[in-house]
Amino acid sequence: MSLESLFQPFSYKGLTLENRFVMAPMTRTRSPKGIPTAEVADYYARRAASEVGLILTEGTVIDRPSSKNHPDIPNFYGDALPAWEKVVKDVHANHGKIAPQIWHVGNTSYPGVTMPDPMEGPETMSEADVADAIQKFAESAAAAKQLGFDCLEIHGAHGYIIDQFFWEQTNQRTDQYGGKTISERNKFAVEVIKAMRKAVGDDFVIILRLSQWKQQDYKARIAPTPEKLEQWLQPLADAGVDIFHCSQRRFWEPEFEGSDLNFAGWAKKITGQPTITVGSVGLSGDFLGSFAGKGAEKNNNLDELTRRLERGDFDLVAVGRAVLQDYEWVKKVKQGKLEELQEFSPNSLATYY
After folding, report:
1. CB-based burial of residue 335 (10 Å sphere; 0-12 exposed, 13-18 middle, 19+ buried)?
2. What tens digit of pLDDT does each residue of 216-237 get?
3. Which CATH topology does 4-351 take?
């Protein structure tokens, strides 16, 4: 199958990308005391030089108590901002595009790390705390634009703070930020998005990463039906989300019975907004074999990914661990160097540059 559709430009508002590949955000805890180093800048610059269409940084935290659960997760405020400015300049010097993923981990712990108590989550935050968190998200958004980033992503997935407000298992509040329905529990995210949109203006692209699954529960479902999904996503689009980054563990799995649309496909159908698909892209021998024209019995292959892209289910494809292991992964695909592609080796993610 032709790879042409994967290497077509993409444009939306003020963002233009050379191809459809996005580097997914991946936490590596390599920024001592929250300050990115020159090595971190080089890590991103090498992937820009290797023709990744858009780089999403690892999660970077806002200026709130317990916004991080590891001391070496990068900050996105204060003394860290000049270091991020260097990252942007180095990526742009290599003809790349980059967005920070702006984050607050909530009360989710990091394996093997003990952070000072209390961890901040929906059950502990006063309305004043919530208001300050919204403001700090907006301040980080303004910083992203001022530093020259090409767009930004909000992390609203995987059981972290925004997702904790979405999910009924973690949001038991009885005030205006809680409720029995997702429409009610959306309020925190909607106010975050509106504040960030106001901070960056209309033309600066805002991406929102969402997931049904949580680290706490892989089978979790915020929206068990298309109708519930619309109640969840449409208010977020109306608040200012331009692109939905739809995280699922396997991109080829249908979101609902009766349709082969995945999460990204349904999000685009419901909201009309561009979407990013992600989930085990490039990880299996089955997927890689399809590059070489070998048959594939499963749906996890290039033909299936390209079929869905060309059908219009989604607009962009995020690749995580494959690009983490091999910073030239996108370039090798483009150049047809298929024999050089290898399956991901699950060593420590922090070792890769």
Report:
1. exposed
2. 888 999 999 999 999 999 999 9
3. TIM Barrel (3.20.20)
- What dihedral do alpha carbons 202, 206, 211, 212 form, nearest 10°? 0
Q: Which sequence positions are flagged as catalytic?
A: 160
CA distances from 76 to 33, 85, 209, 216, 245 (A): 12, 11, 18, 26, 21
CB neighbour burial string for 279-291, b if at least 16 within 10 angstroms, e if fewer: bbbbbbebbbbbb
Q: How many angstroms separate the Cα of 272 from the Cα of each of 107, 241, 243, 267, 350?
A: 33, 11, 10, 8, 37
For residue 17, give every residue at least 6 positions away whose Cβ sits within 8 Å of its Cβ, in sequence order, or none: 9, 10, 11, 53, 54, 97, 316
Collapsed DSSP state (helix, strand, coil) of residue 17: strand
Task: Enter the pTM of the model.
Answer: 0.94
Say if strands 15-17 and 275-278 run parallel, antiparallel, or are unpaired: unpaired
Q: Which residues contact 85 (CB under 8 A, 6 or more apart)?
A: 147, 148
Q: Which residue has the tokens 């074999």?
A: 289
| Bridge partner residues of 316 (DSSP) | 276
Question: What is the per-residue pLDDT across 89-139, written as a single tens digit (0 to 9) for each?
Answer: 999 999 999 999 999 999 998 988 987 777 899 999 999 999 999 999 999
Q: In the chain, what are the domain boundaries?
A: 4-351
Q: What is the C-alpha separation between 187 and 177, in angstroms, rounded? A: 6
Half-sphere exposure of 343 (CA within 13 A, CB side): 9
**54, 11 contact by CB (below 8 A):** no
Parallel, antiparallel, or unpaired for β 15-17 and 10-12? antiparallel
344, 321 Cβ separation under 8 angstroms? yes
Closest CA to 255 of 239, 284, 232, 288: 232
29 phi, psi to nearest 5 deg: 50, 50
